[in-house]
Write a structure and sequence with these properties.
mainly alpha
């Protein structure tokens, strides 16, 4: 009985997940990395050495900070939802592999976030999202 009632609130559940995931990433991971600038991005991107990529550290560091901030905001809003989840999932997968390869840090959290983001790609943002609002406005009016 409870499970059938849960289906009724599918979109509300997705809204809660989107907001907590997106805003949590911004607050706990991305915002400070994004604001600290190129020196921080260089250090952050330097972990790519652990997986055999020895160039573009500033770029990769910026992209990690970008995905944990801007992509996370888009996820919270449900805007460009699937591409932003793919970007954040890739960032978390890379972070997890880097933690594992370097022996520093725990890869578990990054890999769990990668899996959550990957799974949400298939579920969609729900009806309380900007993507859904844009889609509704694109539809022709009923005749």
């Amino acid at each position: 009985m409870f499970w059938k009632a849960g289906e009724k609130y599918h979109d509300e559940g997705l809204l809660v997940i989107r907001l907590s995931l997106g805003l949590g990433f911004i607050y706990y991971h991305g915002w400070s990395k994004l604001l600290q600038g190129p020196e921080r991005w260089q250090r952050l991107g330097g972990v790519m050495d652990n997986i055999g990529i020895h160039f573009g550290h500033t770029f990769f560091g910026f992209m990690a900070a970008f995905s944990e901030t801007v992509a996370a905001l888009c996820i919270a809003l449900g805007l460009f939802y699937q591409p932003m989840l793919a970007l954040l999932s890739f960032t978390m997968l890379t972070a997890g592999i880097s933690h594992y390869a370097s022996g520093r840090g725990n890869p578990g959290n990054a890999l769990k976030f990668a899996g959550i983001c990957l799974g949400l790609i298939f579920v969609g943002p729900g009806k309380y999202s900007l993507d859904a609002l844009i889609q509704r406005r694109k539809q022709p009016p009923p005749e």
